[in-house]
Design a protein that fits this description.
Strand order of the largest sheet: 3-2-1-4-5
CATH architecture: 2-Layer Sandwich
Helix content: 25-40%
Distance between the termini: 20 Å
Strand content: 15-25%
CATH topology: Nucleotidyltransferase, domain 5
CATH superfamily: ATPase, nucleotide binding domain
Largest sheet: 5 strands, mixed
CATH class: Alpha Beta
Radius of gyration: 19 Å
Order of helices and strands: EEEHEHEHEEEHHEEH
Structural class: alpha/beta
Length: 247
């Protein structure tokens, strides 16, 4: 089995793979080191790949270095990462890079658009042979809801869960509808715009705030909540192949 760890802004996502298939997935908000050690004791882990856009817990890297298997960290300068025309590649989140790696690997012969609806909504465009074209970043759902609360005197801090009518009938539903329907329209419009700019485009959607967003986009959209983990798993496989070639 391979173990992937994605340290995000609000939580860490752990996914176990066997023969490229997701076996189990966990979300961890605290005690990441303990969770990883428990998994290592329970499963036969052959390789570990991880990335971080959030704070790395104290002692985490030392714990990984003591594991009895190959461990690889995905960063913007990792060899598996794509040739990027981005002028600030060091600013690319490793989770975006992982999702891009998986989307290109699973889209042979296609140019690719990867949309990750998480803390922020990110849009990444890549040519079929790998080079990164560019992308955009917009506020995610929780960020939009919190911004309305933080920057006004009276609007409450609401959750995205709850009634979602076609239009709001009170403050909560007005805010929720504004954010969710706005995100749906925004993503649908961006996909349509990119399809007009980039031929033979395959669209992928991932992230924690999918909200049936693909249902509001014209044309085919591939929804995969494990796209980041699958990119990290490809890194695991690369390290295992390299280790076998050395033997």
């Amino acid at each position: 089995m391979n173990l992937t760890i994605d340290i995000g802004n609000t939580r860490s996502k752990i996914v176990l793979f066997c023969n490229d298939q997701v076996q189990e997935a966990f979300a961890v908000e605290s005690d990441l080191c303990e969770a990883v050690q428990r998994i290592m004791q329970t499963y036969d882990i052959q390789a570990v790949a991880w990335s971080a856009v959030g704070r790395i817990p104290e002692g985490f890297e030392a714990m990984l270095s003591a594991l009895p298997c190959p461990v690889a960290r995905l960063e913007w300068h990792s060899p598996i990462a794509f040739n990027r025309k981005y002028q600030t590649p060091e600013g690319m989140g490793a989770d975006r890079i992982a999702a891009d790696i998986a989307a290109v690997a699973y889209s042979p012969g296609h140019n690719v658009l990867v949309i990750d609806a998480g803390t922020c909504i990110t849009y990444d465009l890549l040519w079929a042979d790998g080079p990164y074209i560019g992308g955009n970043i917009a506020p995610g759902m929780q960020m939009r809801l919190r911004a309305m609360h933080d920057h006004t005197a009276a609007l409450p801090l609401i959750t995205p869960d709850g009634p979602l009518p076609d239009y709001g009938h009170d403050t909560d539903t007005a805010m929720r509808c504004g954010v969710v329907w706005g995100m749906r329209g925004e993503i649908a419009s961006e996909v349509e715009r990119y399809r007009a700019l980039i031929p033979n485009l395959k669209v992928w959607l991932t992230g924690g705030d999918e909200l049936n967003l693909a249902d509001y986009v014209k044309g085919e959209v591939n929804v995969d909540r494990y796209l980041v983990a699958k990119g990290l798993n490809l890194l695991c496989e690369e390290y295992l192949q390299n280790a076998l070639s050395v033997q």
